[in-house]
Amino acid sequence: MSDYDVGYGKPPKETRFKKGVCPNPKGRGKKSAQDRGAVVEQLLNSSAGIVDRGKRTRKSRIELSIRNYAYSASRGDVASAALLLKVLKHLKKGNDLGPDIVVIENALPDIQW
Question: What value does the mean pLDDT of the chain take?
Fold first, then answer.
């Protein structure tokens, strides 16, 4: 018989890990490095539920953000309007879709576009 108790937390000596032998030689593995841009793109393309005109729908987060900025710009927020114009300019880059005609009412006089 053995000279120690076998039980909870006390496995038999024959089945314990042997000294010098790693039970997991390959290890956990490295964490996969994700591109920050891919993470942001994945987040913005994920959908969120909203109530639009009384109906529950799902839209992408980027679309919801742009809708929110457009709403703020239509209510007179100059910063939102400027951001929307930058986004539009960036989207049109490389595609000649004609001149941009923008009229901003109630803008501060010292802001130059």
Answer: 79
- Residue of 45, 108, 41 lying closest to 81 (CA atoms): 108
User: Are the CB atoms for 44 and 60 separated by under 8 Å?
Assistant: yes
Ranges of H-type helices in 29-107: 36-45, 61-74, 78-92
Calpha distance 83→60 (Å, rounded): 19
pTM of the model: 0.50
For 107, counting Cβ atoms within 10 Å of its Cβ (0-12 exposed, 13-18 middle, 19+ buried), the class is middle
Q: What phi, psi does 73 have (nearest 5°)?
A: -65, -40
